[in-house]
Write a structure and sequence with these properties.
By secondary structure, this protein is an all-alpha fold. It has helices at about 5-20, 25-40, 45-60, 80-105, 110-130, 140-155, 155-165, 170-175, 185-200, 210-240. Helix 2 crosses helix 9, helix 3 runs parallel beside helix 5 (about 110-130) and helix 5 packs parallel to helix 10. The N and C termini lie close together (about 10 Å).
């Protein structure tokens, strides 16, 4: 085992422990704040976000909207693959920050438009990361794994543990996975994401500070998703070896 692989195994070990942690007092407190914030947000806003996320999930599961041809050579080393992955994450973070700053400066309506655009940016990044790690994103089962990564990154601690357990030993589950998306719980998926992103981004709707909040929030959200994706695919590769 080379030094890079040893480093990956150590980082993966601590990440797995983090995924299995029980909700902390801070986590519970944050959830209570989130529920309070949600009660002040107009229902039409919640509805718009819910519909957007549902359509995005369906596009990922049924279509080829995000299918990428960026597939590196099979013989490429893991350290080289991860260098390319980190470049992708950095590029998408900057793109998301620029988009968030523009929409945040544009007021309420433009900030609302940021939600579907941001989801699209995240999904495209996940598809490219999957391809760089050598996974075929044209396979429905791989697109399902991408959705689980997305859900894992933006779920509460309680929900995160449940999702993580679904993703463990994924390579052994491939032959028993359904061949269609009927069993995917998109309702829970969109609720968890909506609740997570509300807390991080609702300040983007405020005048004056909206641009700064939008840029920072988008950057951090995409960075978090990218790191989660790296660990999730490392877990798959470690299973194979």
């Amino acid at each position: 085992m080379d030094k890079h692989q040893e480093k990956i195994r150590i980082e993966l070990h601590f990440w797995k422990k983090e995924m299995m942690e029980k909700p902390s007092l801070l986590n519970k407190f944050t959830n209570n704040i989130q529920k309070k914030i949600n009660s002040y947000i107009p229902e039409k806003v919640h509805t718009a976000i819910t519909v957007t996320i549902k359509k995005m999930v369906q596009a990922v599961l049924y279509g080829s909207t995000y299918t990428t041809s960026t597939v590196p050579p099979i013989e490429m080393s893991l350290i080289h693959r991860e260098a390319l992955v980190k470049q992708k994450i950095d590029s998408y973070c900057k793109t998301g920050a620029a988009e968030g700053g523009i929409t945040g400066a544009g007021g309420f309506l433009m900030s609302m438009a940021d939600f579907p655009v941001l989801i699209g940016i995240k999904m495209k990044m996940l598809f490219e990361i999957a391809a760089l790690y050598g996974f075929d994103v044209k396979d429905y089962r791989e697109r399902l794994y991408i959705l689980y990564i997305f859900q894992l990154a933006f779920s509460s601690q309680h929900g995160r543990t449940k999702i993580f357990m679904h993703m463990e030993n994924w390579n052994q589950k491939l032959h028993i996975l359904p061949e269609n998306s009927d069993s995917f719980d998109w309702k829970t998926f969109q609720q968890e994401y909506r609740d997570y992103i509300d807390l991080a981004k609702m300040a983007q709707l405020l005048p004056v500070v909206g641009a700064a909040v939008g840029a920072v929030a988008n950057y951090q959200l995409i960075k978090k998703l990218g790191k989660t994706a790296m660990q999730a695919y490392r877990m798959r590769l470690i299973e194979e070896t």
